[in-house]
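Extended Data, panel c. Modelled sequence:
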Amino acid sequence: MLCSKENEELERRCENLFNELQQAKKINREEEDDYQKKTQENKYLKDYIEKTGLAMDLCNTGKTVSEVKERQKRRKIKELKSGVEKALWFAGTYGLNLTSATFSDVNGNDFPLSFTDNTKAKSYKNLSEEEKNRIKEVLFIQDKFCVGEAAYHELTMSEGGESLPRSYLIRQCKDSMNELCHIERTPGMAEGAQVNFKDELKKVLTSLISNRKEDENNESQSKIGKIKVKLSGDGAKMTRVTSFVILSFSILDDKDSVMSSKGNHTVAVIKGAESYELLETSCSDIFQDVNKLIKEKYIKIDGCDDPIEIEICMGGDYKFLLLIMGLKGATSDFACLWCKIFKALRYDMSKPMDFYITDKEMIRTLEDIKKCALKNSYSCEHVPLVNIPLENIVLDELHLMLRVTDKLTKNLILEAVNRDNKDSVEKTRSKNTMTYLDSLVKTICSCGISFSVWEKKNADGKASGVYDFTSLMGSEKKILLEKLPEKLSGVITPETSDSVIQLWKDFNNIYSHLLQMKSPTEDEIEKYFSEVKAWVDLFVKLGSQLEGYGKARVTTYIHAMAYHVPQFMRKHGGVKKFTGQGN
């Protein structure tokens, strides 16, 4: 009985103690909450009091930074950084944070200090558009000048590298860009990479139509008409033994970027020399998509209720066009892609402008090439890889300029060498000089171009009598066309000087003005044809006096410039838009 009462008393006391403990905890929590609340409310005042209580004796009492060695220099820089952070505490009252400061010593050496918190690594996806664009610019420079990731990382770690984007952000940017498209291996044995042509075309068309909708002049989607897509390709020799074939496409209706790198979209890169077999095997997937689109004539894209009508065209250098259409090389008997003219008759300018597209015996068609390929006639040896109508296959005007300028330059060199050889007949071998050739090279260099000529060697190391010259870029050849004619007087053979100079001037006019016309009228096309005819006639006439000119020297490019470019101008509103980007 006694034990029972004691137990009840103990339970009552325990319960009272527990209630008191709970009450004490509650009061303690309330006090803590009140403290946190007041601390938060007076944080600014608290920080201000703490800052005003800082010791501001920050002066350097020892040697200057430039007077000490590296170890002491690092210590002093660390002290300086701490002092700067303390001294500029008031920047926070303006709503500003200190991120960096740069100091220079008496020798002009910079000492950048960073005050940002780098403990948390940023992600590329979380950066602002401005920061992303800066990283993309750095990545572009890396790729353009072949700067490796390890080399760039060392740059960021070196003195002054603090301002460069971190190397891990560059890698994340690269990965992000790789996710934009699916890259796969090309078919066949040759090494190569490709993207899906149809998917890539859809992306580009979606972007183009989206931009059109934002244009005030485009009030509705119904105004979207036929869109022309240009397929192009070219071979590129990277080293003495390594070549690549590159396929790309562009939208001819996109006037702002069709001739820029931005408007040209690469769909395949294949390691190997240009050949029909390589294109047939490695580009089979792409050509299959192209031929399917040509047959269907429409493509369905997101954001458009109705399918978009498309027309496939093709451009590029002449070798690529011949290969892809199954023809033999440019030196074959019937090397013209658009007609069946025999090579010995290419000089004939007596035919009217439309002769080679109206004469049924002369005109080529896609079906005609397929039939001739079965018989191996008219220089057709393979079936075309794409079913693009020949009127939609347009000669690249820039490549035309490059090849014709090469021909004219080679003729100048040949003329100078022949004059030097003629003069040397009466001289002893020890006194043989290349006076005329040296004068020509000096004249070309005076145009602001680096240029040289050399004699090739035979296998035994002896002189071959064949000369080669510096391969010029497109921009350099444009300078040559513009400036050289005025300098040739007195440098080339006096008897033919006027005709040769006129030949250079007239071709410069044909290329720089007539071939650059946008949407030329019928009268302008007629004028172009008459001027090209006169130019070819002068070229042929010079053959009776100088080597390198004449009937047999009229190339396929020259014939096409006269009789087929006018048709391209008429159908496509000029040929400038078919220029190969980057040449």
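The chain has 19 helices and twelve strands. This feature is highlighted in the accompanying rendering.
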